[in-house]
Amino acid sequence: MLHIVDDEDVIRDSLAWLARSRGIEACGYATAQAFLESAGARFAPEGDCVLLDVRMPDMNGVAVFDQLGARGLTARMPVIFLTGHGDVPMAVDSLKRGAFDFVEKPFNDNQLMDRVQEALAASRHAGEAAQVQARLAALSAREREVLEKILAGKMNKVVADELGISMRTVEVHRANIFEKMQVKTAVELAGLLK
């Protein structure tokens, strides 16, 4: 989903229409506070991106970006700054601190939507990586040991001998690993963790 944070109704509406013309779901916010109150609660499973105006009356875009960073949301919710008043040092600083892009108004509609689609792809990738890490964290210490041996291509009997456990125990751990990692084969597992 594209989150559009801009105090100008016309800009918000035109950007939402432009996004929808590309098949991107969009939601607009007239204030930074309205956006921050919903940030995190309205994540789309397929990815999120924020178009964030730098100058707004209630809170500037840089302060909003800082709050997203403090919440750990900037990787999962890439930010593209929009400004009619930006300067080079502000743009450089924002990019160094993790902003996805910094675009000056007036902008080229197609180029902006191309960047939005790239940011959405980055968000999806970050979300998938976070899911894999969460699944890995759900493994027990012994399951992680068995996982390492599976990824090294070792057969169950070899894993059992190296870990000093029965082959049946290895089979049980292997089944638990596949279930927790949501894979059906060792090849799929290796592909997920590459």
UniProtKB/TrEMBL annotation:
Taxonomy, superkingdom: Bacteria
Keyword line: DNA-binding, Phosphoprotein, Transcription, Transcription regulation
Keyword Transcription regulation attributed: yes
Gene3D superfamilies in UniProt: 3.40.50.2300, Winged helix-like DNA-binding domain superfamily/Winged helix DNA-binding domain (1.10.10.10)
4-aspartylphosphate modified-residue sites: D53
Start and end residues of each HTH luxR-type domain: 132-194
Residues covered by the Response regulatory domain: 1-120
Alphabetical list of SUPFAM superfamilies matching this protein: C-terminal effector domain of the bipartite response regulators (SSF46894), CheY-like (SSF52172)
Keyword Phosphoprotein tagged: yes
SMART domains from the UniProt entry: HTH_LUXR, REC
One Pfam family this sequence matches: GerE
InterPro entries: CheY-like_superfamily (IPR011006), Sig_transdc_resp-reg_C-effctor (IPR016032), Sig_transdc_resp-reg_receiver (IPR001789), Tscrpt_reg_LuxR_C (IPR000792), WH-like_DNA-bd_sf (IPR036388)
PANTHER family, A to Z: DNA-BINDING TRANSCRIPTIONAL ACTIVATOR DEVR_DOSR (PTHR44688:SF16)
The protein's name in its UniProt record: Response regulator
Organism the protein comes from: Massilia agrisoli
